[in-house]
Amino acid sequence: MGRRLMVRRTLLIVLSPLLLMQALWVKWRTPRLPEPMGERSGELGEGPLLRLLILGDSAAAGVGVSAQHEALSGQLTRLLEPHYRLRWRLLAKSGMTTTQTLAWVEQEAAQADVVLISLGVNDLLSPIGVRRWLTATGELIDGLLASSPGAKVLLTPLPPLGAFPRFAQPLAGVLTRREARFNQALMAFCQGRRACQLLPLQLPLTPEALASDGFHPSAASYRLWAECACRAIISLHRPS
């Protein structure tokens, strides 16, 4: 074991009781927002058929806004409607990890031309290591491609959790380093898979960009996310 890694692990062991107390305090102080009401599937628009699956955690589910039309799914489908006959579906639930989502997708066997994924935050906040997370991500994508050969998979980078106002030191520093390792691994993963693309998404962390819980996106941030995903989808499936 290298000296730097040994020192890092020693510090984590020493700090772990404090980190646990901080994490529990943040969880207790953070209001739990519900998933918004609204449609989670539909068909709209005219033109070439595009089957879209939005998959993931509370952010994919739209937590932070009051209705799905303000969330990622509603804003993205409106942006895509002028270009395609869009058949879309949202499979997302608060608290979902990558492994839990894999089991869910295996039951649903949803078919799609494009899959937009928002996962990783709940994995990052758990004890799981980067390698196990990437293995689960690979298994998830393999399962999606088995149901939908030829589909393109758009993955969303993890947000800079350590910079969120809810997190203080030393927990913020640990989350910052962990997020950097997760995102670096995810970038390398996407570069090694032709079906995968990592969205170039960097959402602001201003008060206007965050929901009332100081953690989930606001309607304005969901709009930026939808615009980024829309550009990527159109570049992959150019309408005639």
TrEMBL record:
Q: Which InterPro entries match?
A: Ester_Hydrolysis_Enzymes, SGNH_hydro, SGNH_hydro_sf
MF GO annotations: phosphatidylcholine lysophospholipase activity
Q: Which Pfam families match?
A: Lipase_GDSL_2
Which keywords label this protein? Hydrolase
CDD domains per record: FeeA_FeeB_like
Coiled-coil annotation reads none
Tell me which residues make up the SGNH hydrolase-type esterase domain. 54-224
What name does the UniProt record give this protein?
Answer: SGNH/GDSL hydrolase family protein
